[in-house]
Every structure is written in structure tokens, then in C-alpha cells.
Amino acid sequence: MEWQPEPESLRQLIQLFNSTQSVDNAVQQQNNQRLEELRRVPDFINYLLFVLIVMKDENSTVRAVAGLLLKNNVRQDFTSIPPHVLEYVKRKSIDAIGDPDTLVRHTLGTVIATIVALGKIRSWPEILPRLMQLLDSPDYPVVEGSWDILRKICDECTRELEEPLDDGTLPLNVMLPRFLSFFSSESPTLREYAISTTTLFVRESSECMKPMMDTFVVELFKRANDDNPEVLKAVCKAVVALIETRPDMLMPELENVVNYMIHTSQNSDPDIAMEACEFWLSFCEQEEMVESLKPFLSQVIPTLMRGMVYSEEDLMILDNNDEDAVVPDSEQDIKPRHHRARTHEHHGAAAGGSSNSDGGSIHEDEDDDDDEYDSDDDDDVYSEWNLRKCSAASLDVISTAFGDHILEFVLPVLKEELASDDWRVKEAGILALGAIAEGCMTGMQPHLPSLLPYLIQWFKHEKALVRSIACWSASRYGKWAIYESGPNMLAVYFEPLLAGLLETMMDKNKRVQEAACSAFATLEEEAGPYMVPYIQPVLETLMRAFSLYQRKNLIILYDAVGTLAEAVGSELNQPQFIHMLMPNVIERWEDLPTDDHHMFPLSECLSAIALALGPSFAPYAQVAYERCVQIVGETLQICQQSHLDPTIETPDMDLVIVALDFISAIVQALGDSSQPLIAEHNGVVLQLIGMCM
């Protein structure tokens, strides 16, 4: 007999699903506990599937909740699901592909794609032929539902689809020609699915795709002026994929392609413009092709500079001139922090005063990709890659590729923007000035004696966003102010820049504080020993900032203090400096709970201070060393317990790394005097280090 739910159990389950919308934490915990209990019921999966595909009169959100739970249960328990239950789910799912409700249809698609991905295509040989057959259905929900599943399978099983099935056929040889035929579908949704899914295989340099590349390019450019924004975005992504993997396909029509991307980079829809803007980033990464862009720079560069102006949507979120320095940060404002090597190229303000903003060259670390212009901003809604950041990153890579050659196109626009009465335009000009710093430093040198004082003057602009971007841009020219402005010119350029940043670090706007402190960290790292004469005023400002900054900006402040120690080294080892610095920093560290977000940056800061102070760190060494050993020992113990008991959460092993770094710094600072510390508790630290190794 066909499986049927028990009515009372079904009613209770629906009631439970309805209560999942509650915002009451106690209700949520109770629901989670009940759902965890239900997972152990043998036919719980059948109940979930029944709610998802049979109960069409039920609220679609409830049905989708059942579907997501079904997907999660399949993912977590796949190997232990009885074969007859899995077969039941497969059979019933295929029959429900064309559900009229889009949310339910797509949730079911996720369930099916999950089963395919976990069990491999061979374990469900009829699914792909069935889906391809359903693409011919006259019923749109069936076609759209089939497409939704196909694109998810392609995303999950890209490589597997290139492998022959048991009968020797390659699935993609059947699928790709059919996908290409949908480029001209009457439905914009299906056109977007087809283009995006086929582009996956272009990116992967699929062998099956190679014979169809000519057709792909022809069909793609038929959609170049599509009236649907999602289709246009898919077209732009496909062109970017081509420039990255098959630039030879674009070379015969390169002029038309470039002109099209210039035009689309100015689309009134910022999301379309951003996707087009990615083209310039990818183009400049193609060393054998980059020179081909040279004839178009006169058009590309002004387009990018216009794209760097804040949009109205940006300003609704970011244009905050409030004196908010006394407002405590919420915990969600503070991103999780992981141990890393200290470098300041990631600090910046160009995307709105964030600690991981438009600052720095995106070539500093290949692993970071576009991270220099991809920020963790104050507002999660704004923490995504956007047209402004993409335009700035593109100008950066173009300046690196072509150097001073681009200045003939940059400077006229820059002059106009910096003189603008519209603060948004002026701000974009300041961002552009910083973006070209690395690539065009030589050509910019004649202009810097007049430009740098202007940048410092803008530290006091009425708009917080202008103040923050001016700090970042000025820091990009810090190296010139220190080393290249001329003999005996530190007092003319470097000192005003340093003084301006120190003053701006005390701004009453948190975003400006963050930008100024990040810029200062970059400057002191560049200056190194040149910072020695200024230790006293710098420490005075840093200590004042400790009492002003909220939790998020304290993280950057710790970094700035640690960088000062690295820059001036043993020159910090003066009684008056130690007295100013150590009570504040070491007390904070001692009072900090081990699981606090600040443990990483503050420990890194103290490690740098220990190395700078050398033997003078001795009064603080005992307490710091013992706590670090305790952190390593306790974290390793919890880690071992979590392997034996899955209910125990695995600890953050970065805690061990940062503690070991601090121990290393203490031993290096004290030299032979560290031997009594190491000998404590029968040299337990050596046992712990052995375990870590």
C-alpha cells in the first residue's frame, strides 16, 4: 500500500512548522529540540515530503519549511536512509516538479539536486533524461521547475557531468545543445537559466563545451540588448567568463565587445553596470591581451571614474554625519577575527570607512583576489561587492598595467571632480586619486606637493564620507611623503600628514575614526624608524583613543599600537613610553575573556610590544606566559573532547596559534631569562607544543 501519514502526527507537525516563524528564542529552542527528536522517527522524511508536495492547500512557507528540513535531513543522514525510503522520495519528487507555487517548486528542486549530488548521477540514472524530456512540456511551471533542478545539478555536479554514464554517453553532449536552444526562449527566466548554466561549463573549460563555443558566442550576443535585467547580467558574466578562459573567441570582435562593455558599464541599473565592470578587472589579468585595451583607455577610464560616485542607495545606508563615537557597537557590527600575519594593505576607507575597504593594491596578495576593495562595512546590507568598489578596483589594476600612460585620461576628470561643489563627485575623485597611487606614483609626483595638502585639508570636511576617504587616499601617498618628497622635507609633507591623521583619529564619527586609524597604521608601517621622533605624541593619541573608541574600532587601534612597536623597535623601550603604554594594554588583556573577539588582535599587539621592549617586558611576562599556556592546554583538551563527543563544539584553534605566537615573543624578548618560565610545571609548554606539532 502507498504510504499515508497518521492524521494526528501530521497535524502536530504542521503546528510545529507554523510556530517556526516565532521570534521568541525559547520557542525556537523548543522547536529545534522537538525537530531533533523527530529526526529519529523512521518515516519522518515521508512526512516532510508529504507536507512539501501533497498539502497544496497549506501555506507555501510551511511547505517550504518542510522542504528545507527534508533537504537537511537528506544531507545529514544520506548514508543511513533506508533504500526503499529514498526510492519513495525520488519517485514522488519527480511527479511534483511542476508545482504551481514557485517557492515550493524551487525548494523541491533543492531537495532533488541534493539527492543527486550526494548519491551521484549514476545512482539515479533516470533523473537527467526525465528532466530533459520535461523541458518540452507545454506547462510553464513544469519547464521552469525542470530547469531549476538542472541548473542546481550542473552547479553541484559540474565535473561529474563530463564523465560517461554506464552506457558510454556523456550527459553534457545531450544537455548543452538543448541549453543553447533556450538562449532565445520567450521566457526571460529561462533565458537567464540557460545562459548562466552554460557559462558554468565555459568557466570550467569543459571538453564537451569546446565544439559548441562558436554557437555559444553567436547565441550569446543575440541577447546583448535583451530587455530583461537578469538576462543582461548573465550576458555580462558570460563575456567575463570568455575573457578569462577563451579570450581567443572574443579577439575577432574585440572592438565591438569592448565598446559594448563600456556602454553596459554605464547602465542605469547599478547591478548590470557592476557585472559589466568586472570585465575590466578580468581583462587586465590576461597578460597576453592587456595591451589590446590601450586604444580604449580614453573611454574606459572616465566610465570607471563615474562609476565610483556613491549611488543614492549607498547614501541611504552610509551617509551618516552623526557624532556617534559614544554609541556602543552591537555585537553583529564586529566581524569574527582570525589570526593572520600583520599587514596594513587591507586597511582603508574607500568603501565607506571600513576596515577592509578599498584600501591597498589588490595585487598585494593573490589569495585575497578583490578583497582590498571588498569591505566588511558597518552595515551588513552594504557589505557586498558593488559598482563603486568594482570600478575602483578596475582603475587600480588598469593603473598597475599601464602606469603613467593613463594619467592623460585620469587627470582631466580628476581635476574636474576634485573641484566639484557636489561632495559625492569630490569624494569619488579622492577615491580615484588613491586608486591610481601604486600604478602611477612616478607620474603623480609633480602634482603631490599641491595635492597632498588638499587631502589633509579634507580630513576636516563636513561630510564624514569625505573625511574617511581622504584619510585612505592620503595614506596611499605616505611613502612619497617619507622617502621621495625630497631631502629634509619630512616637516613639509610627512609631519602634517601624521599630525592630520592623529587628529582625525579622535573624530566624533566612528567611520572616520576607523579610516584615520587604518591610514595611520599604513603610514607608520611605511615610515618604520622615521616614527621614532614622534613616539611621544603618537602614544598620547593612541592612549586617548583607548578611552574614546567603541569595540569595533578598538580592534584597529590594537593593530596600530602593535605596528608602532614593530616600526620603532627597541626605541619604544624607554621608561616614560612603557609607563604610558603598558598599564592600559596589559590590563585590558588580563580582563578579557578568552572567547572575546578582541583576544586575537590584542594578543598580536602584545606580542609586538614584547619583542620591542625585550628584557623590559619581564614585569608582565609571568602573567602573560601562564595565561597563554593555559589557553593552549585548555583549547587542546576541549578539541580532544569534541572528537569523542559530537555535542561538544570544536574550539577555535586560532586561539592556540595566537597564544603560541605570544609565548614565542615572550621567550624571544626575555632570552635566557625565560628559562624559569619554560621550566614551570615540568616544562608542560614543551609537551603542549609537541601535541600541536
From TrEMBL:
It comes from the Eukaryota. This is Uncharacterized protein.
